[in-house]
């Protein structure tokens, strides 16, 4: 994948996921303390998250691919041949890094280091939102890598900026981040008991994106083009 | 136009328009639920829409051109020779995709899947706003393709970010999106009965942009330059 | 300058300044109507203005240079040899275009087409702010063209985004826009009687930027480098 | 480092730091005057600061490297061989420029030119936040220069946009800016007595980033890659 050593790639994934979660959780705490308007708090949360994604993917992408997300690693495993062992190691350090990010945010804001969230996020509509959010994220990554690989950091940051608002779940779209967010009882939290529904939805959305992308982004043979360009309506 | 098959191009237009409308409608619902300040709601709506436009045009542009908008397809048909049949097919899937986007947003936010909007948007000032908004959009696309084609996704996203605020109509500038927005009685809605005025204005604005662009962006022959560079005042 | 005809260049300057002013004035009216919070209104005004600047400079820069600003045309005249006659024509159409932009914004928002502003903006602190704002703008343009010409649209848009907030005058930095803003009694207005102080300050700031840039951005001869690299402290 | 003379490089560092501080302090004053909502004020402060960083680093980077920050100069001194004398001169003009920026902001907003801040920012959590903020900033600069040097202005601007929100200290991350901010009793201030804790934390964070970057961003020899690519779990 890259020419960096496996240990550096794992540290890169852990560090990136930690800073991503510290931003999601930390900016939520900061915003929530400074305003009574929930939309304004989510707006600050959105800007911080979108901005840090562009940065982290730009600077750690060349080291480890900058997945920071188990379903993204899974998609690459299914698509590009990341070995099962590497994939499992990536996922493990993403989860550990994410939890470290929650702890760091809590330490900076003088809160108990680990907490169980009480924020309810469950039900069919929320799951549909997570399927949609993760479908979009993985599709954007795959199509971005296909057509504009240098722009992928921006595309992911901007996609999440939009998805925080257009999905009813505020677009977790990431099982490692979801687990880390179950350990904070602040703005960005999710009840631990609601994790399975979110994670299943995220995996499903990612698989859907893989399927759609593998058809939609493939150029047919010339003969097919001739046949299909102007079909009868 | 592109080397992707016609069916893929149609799916690309439908998918892109669906996600665009889901963002416009969904972020409007989310913002409206979280704040009582209409400017703040429009700000969130703006950011989400501008961001997703950059993303969708970047990742689907190489497949289908990423029009997501009947008047853009119309402009290309008049300018570049997209056949009438292709243009009609593009417009049809844009409208269907847009409606699917409204349904998706409603499903994620647990609302009735199709609704008739009651938001009044009509009258000469609103129509002037739509003419202006669509003139600007189509002009930006044509001039952007002429001078900085790789920047078009950004230029469209930023133009709409501005146009949400500087036009009195919040810049629909898109008949397919307008139709889809007539089917939601939420923040982004428009009464079905007000659609014709908007659509006529949008088509007029697009044609005006075509005319201005075809004169303004053309370099004269050298002889003309010599004659015109320093005319008497 | 460019290979476009003089008439096209003048139309480009007029059109660009008109859309810039329509955005500044229109987004101010929209924001002011939607919220009671002045900071939020200025934030919306800022985003719209910054975004449209990136767009307009990108798409009209190749035609006319995209000055949209008499002090920018003046700086190029002093620096690059734009003739006096061309400069005067540029300034004239910038002023006319700006006024047209105010009229367009008023028409879209159903207001009297021309108004005299009653917003007081005067005094030494405001003039210092305009000197600072215009110094920064012209310096950014000159240094941007010197080092990263393709990024100038972004640099100008981002500079004005910052300057709306860090200067006490909200950074007019443009005599044509200032004149156009004196004709609207809305959020973005300025009393006609306060125009001379602003315009003199803007010209002064632009000249200061020219002086600083012509020294700071010049590489010395090699001999000087040897002498100056490590001077005694 | 660059081929600009030493005197130009020092003026560039002083000018850049002055405009950076004028933006941080000035936008804080503006925002604080216009709204009672602290989150909204911080949001405006964030946008202005992030935007001006992109601009200043783009236009002054080619002259002096655009450090504007003693710990960044220190990092380059330790890493790339900026001489001790140059480093001290850079730091001196950064501090002087920063103070000039505070004075400029106060003059524009008609406030006493120098003030002692009374805003308390101290304690272990704040220091941890500053370590984190500065670690991130210096790591982003080093990794950005390594992989995407042309994107560094954007990466720094976006990183600070996020860090204003995810660190409990609003991410000063800069001793020269911290000193300048101790001289304003407005939104962006910090008590002079709290400076040492912040500066020590910032130096520590920068050194930590240097250590992590020098290990993480180094590609191992080929033999190591073979050995490490797929280690036993």
UniProtKB/TrEMBL annotation, chains A, B, C, D:
Keywords: Membrane, Transmembrane, Transmembrane helix, Transport. One of its GO terms (molecular function) is channel activity. It comes from the Bacteria. It is a multi-pass membrane protein. The keyword Transport applies. Gene3D superfamilies: Glycerol uptake facilitator protein. InterPro entries: Aquaporin-like (IPR023271), Aquaporin_transptr (IPR034294), MIP (IPR000425). The chain crosses the membrane at residues 47-76, 88-107, 127-145, 152-177, 197-217. Signal peptide: none annotated. It is found in: Membrane. The keyword Cytoplasm does not apply. One of its GO terms (cellular component) is membrane. Belongs to the MIP/aquaporin (TC 1.A.8) family. This is Aquaporin family protein.
């Amino acid at each position: 994948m890259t020419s960096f050593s496996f240990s550096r790639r794992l540290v890169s994934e852990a560090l990136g996921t930690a800073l991503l979660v510290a931003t999601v959780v930390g900016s939520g705490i900061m915003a929530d303390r400074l305003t009574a308007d929930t939309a304004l708090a989510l707006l600050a949360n959105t800007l911080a998250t979108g901005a840090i994604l562009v940065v982290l993917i730009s600077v750690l992408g060349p080291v480890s691919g900058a997945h920071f997300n188990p379903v993204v690693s899974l998609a690459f495993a299914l698509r590009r041949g990341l070995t099962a062992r590497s994939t499992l190691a990536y996922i493990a350090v993403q989860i550990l890094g994410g939890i470290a990010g929650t702890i760091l945010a809590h330490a900076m804001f003088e809160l108990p280091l680990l907490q169980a969230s009480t924020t309810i996020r469950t039900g069919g509509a929320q799951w549909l939102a997570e399927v949609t959010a993760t479908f979009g994220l993985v599709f954007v990554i795959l199509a971005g890598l296909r057509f504009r690989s240098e722009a992928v950091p921006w595309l992911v940051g901007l996609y999440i900026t939009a998805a925080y608002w257009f999905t009813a779940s505020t677009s977790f779209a990431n099982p490692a981040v979801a687990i880390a967010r179950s350990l904070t009882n602040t703005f960005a939290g999710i009840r631990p008991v609601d994790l399975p529904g979110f994670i299943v939805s995220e995996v499903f959305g990612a698989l859907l994106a893989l399927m759609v992308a593998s058809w939609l982004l493939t150029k047919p043979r010339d003969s097919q083009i001739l046949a299909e360009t102007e079909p009868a309506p």
